[in-house]
Write a structure and sequence with these properties.
With about 200 residues, this protein is mostly beta strands. About 10% of the residues lie in helices and about 65% in strands. The two termini are about 30 Å apart.
C-alpha cells in the first residue's frame, strides 16, 4: 500500500504540471525511467494460481526518427522475493526486455500510446528450482508533462510521464517449486510514473 500511495501522489503532481505539446518535441536520442505498482496474476499448470501486488521499475531509451514516434528498448519486470546477500537461496522474479515504441497520435497533445514485445525471463535462486525464458508483450497509454526547465536546451527537455499499461507473457516449463515442472503465464496491470528526456 505504501508504493501505491507514492505512485498516486506523484500522479497528482503530474496532473498539476503544465502539459507538453507534441510540436515541442524533437528528433534524436531519448531516454527514460519510471517506477510504479502492478497487479499481477500468475497462472500455473500444476500448482495454484497467484495474485500479487508488486512494485515495478523500468528503464528505456532509443531514437526518435520523427518528433511523434519514439523507438527503442525497454527493460522492466517484477521481483516476487528480494535477493539477500546473506542467503544465496533467496530471490525470484520476472524480467522483460521489449522492442519498444511510443507514438503521439494527436499533433496538439502530448498524449501517447505505447507498445512493446520481446523476451521474458523467470529467474529464481531457490534451491532445487530453475528458471526459464519465454515471450511477452505490453500495450499502454500515457501523457507527457513539463517537469522542469533544469537542463532544458535545444538538445532536449525533461518531462514527467505518467502511464498505465497491460502486459502479458508465458514461459516454461520451469522447475518451480522443487520437483514440479510446469508452464507459467502472467497478466499484469501497471500504473507508472516516469521521467523522460528527449
Amino acid at each position: 500500500m505504501g508504493a501505491m500511495r507514492i505512485v498516486l501522489s506523484l500522479l497528482a503532481l503530474a496532473a498539476a504540471a503544465p502539459a507538453a505539446l507534441a510540436q515541442d518535441f524533437r528528433t534524436g536520442f531519448w531516454a527514460g525511467a519510471d517506477i510504479g505498482v502492478s497487479a499481477i496474476k500468475r497462472d500455473f499448470d500444476v500448482t495454484n494460481d497467484r495474485n500479487d501486488t508488486k512494485g515495478t521499475v523500468a528503464v528505456r531509451g532509443g531514437y526518435a526518427f520523427t518528433p511523434r514516434l519514439l523507438l527503442g528498448l525497454e527493460a522492466s519486470g517484477w521481483t516476487f522475493e528480494r535477493e539477500d546477500k546473506k542467503d544465496d537461496a533467496r530471490g525470484q522474479g520476472i524480467s522483460t526486455l521489449y522492442l519498444y515504441g511510443q507514438a503521439y497520435p494527436m499533433e496538439s497533445s502530448a498524449f501517447f500510446v505505447k507498445a512493446g514485445v520481446g523476451p521474458v525471463r523467470f529467474w529464481t535462486n531457490h534451491n532445487g528450482e530453475t528458471g526459464d525464458t519465454g515471450a511477452g508483450a505490453m500495450v499502454g497509454i500515457g501523457h507527457d508533462f513539463h517537469f522542469t526547465n533544469l537542463g532544458a536546451s535545444e538538445r532536449g527537455k525533461f518531462y514527467l510521464t505518467p502511464s498505465a499499461d497491460v502486459s502479458w507473457g508465458h514461459f516454461g516449463p520451469a522447475l518451480s517449486p522443487p520437483g514440479v515442472y510446469q508452464n507459467q503465464s502472467y497478466r499484469a496491470i501497471s500504473l507508472r510514473l516516469g521521467i523522460t528526456y528527449r
